[in-house]
Amino acid sequence: MIDALPEKVRRAFEHALGPVGQVWDETCERRVDGVQPVATIRPRDTGELATAVRLLCEHGLATLIVGGGSHSALGNPPRQGRMLLATEAMAGIDELDAEEGVVYARAGTPLSELRGAASEAEWELPFDPPGPRATLGGTLAADALGPQHAGFGRARDVTLGLDVVLGDGCTARCGGRVVKNVTGYDLIKLQIGALGSLGVIAGAWIRLRPLPQAREILTACVEADDKGVARGLAVARLPSARAVALVDASLAAPVDPLRSPAHGFLLVAELAGDEPVVQRDSKQLVSEFGAEPSRPGCLERLRSLQGEAFGRTGLRFRVAVLPSRLAAALEPLAESGAGVLVYPGTGLVFARYSADLEADTGSVEEMWRAIGGAARAGCGHARLEAAPLWAKGVRDVFGAPPEGLGLFRALKERFDPAGILNPGRMAGGL
């Protein structure tokens, strides 16, 4: 039986935020990596968010932060979490400047809504992470990306400004709506990818991208060796290449059922930009690789594959390596039996494993050894992105503690003095 909140705490929230049930409730049904909060807070704007976080800090209530839930599997299991802070009610687009190509939206705004508004204004939203319920705040907090990240850039590259509520309830604003405004620029980099452990993102200014004149998606079959990797790298360097992926034969069927190879890689390439450039690059892919136009929905299925959870015994690792060392990094993964999805242009590898049995920690250790070998061979690093709770307990999901762990601990103490925001989720259990 989970203990309810003390009556004085409940009254404090009701007095500050309004009637119970309007802003928060005590019927929390969501578990996060085995932790069951006792109540949910749903602030509707930055003011309510700041008030809520201040009260959480004053009462020392460890809090788990969620947006749409698309990336809630990322991170170490929380040490505790009495409360759940959901940003879903903080939704809406406050301003979209069609002339400048910038938009300000609140954290709980679904990316689908943002994408639609940008398209109507003849712009593109530069985010494509997996997850149909992905929100702006969750995407930024997780630094989430999808197949088009090579062309769009990373989240921190397109974020012009952030409004963040720190762990003591203070509101911080960094950056702004224009590119040349660099006030607080480093704070933007700190908050993006911090999983809400340094503050709760309330809203953001995002730089949109012009719509391309032309767009084509093609697929081809290439070898599963150094030559196939080299082909993928060559395609990724084409001027119009916006998304290039190599999917090994064990995973390719859901992406393109009619063209998936029996051996080797399925090459998926999205070309976008000026029409003459796209046509030229498309002809090159057809002549050199035998590429064909993809089936409808190919990129969407690729995105789903990247974010898929593989059942009760499935694990998904992300390995980031130098593109020039990609072939060497893939060798230990192939030897260990991993299914891989590769973005050669940026050196990102998503490796999928399935444990034979639940709670088979020995198999998980073997997977980590293979992943560590791939990261070393590629001069990069790795993390466990999704796994059942029992598998997360084997090691820190972010791998070996980073050299800057002491600095991050100091930042955690500065921005979240009571240690209430997603405690334990980040590297080193911070």
Describe the protein's architecture and organization.
The chain has 430 residues and is α+β, with helices and mostly antiparallel strands. 32% of the residues lie in helices and 23% in strands. The protein has helices spanning 7-17, 46-59, 111-120, 136-142, 149-152, 155-158, 185-191, 226-236, 249-252, 275-289, 298-307, 326-335, 361-377, 389-392, 405-415; strands at residues 24-25, 39-41, 63-66, 83-86, 93-97, 102-106, 123-124, 159-165, 171-175, 200-207, 209-210, 214-222, 241-248, 265-273, 292-293, 314-320, 339-343, 348-354, 381-386. An eight-stranded antiparallel sheet has the order 15-12-14-13-17-18-16-19, sandwiched between helices. The protein has a five-stranded antiparallel sheet with strand order 5-6-10-8-9. The chain has a four-stranded mixed sheet with strand order 1-2-4-3, with helices on one face. It starts with 6 loop residues before the first helix and ends in a 15-residue tail after the last helix.
Helix content: 25-40%
Tally of individual domains: 4
The DSSP helix count reads 15
Give a count of the beta strands, DSSP E runs of length 2 or more. Answer: 19
Mean pLDDT, to the nearest integer, reads 90
Structural class: alpha+beta
The coarse silhouette is globular
Unreliable segments of 5+ consecutive residues: none
Share of residues in strands: 15-25%
- What is the CATH-assigned architecture of the largest domain? 2-Layer Sandwich
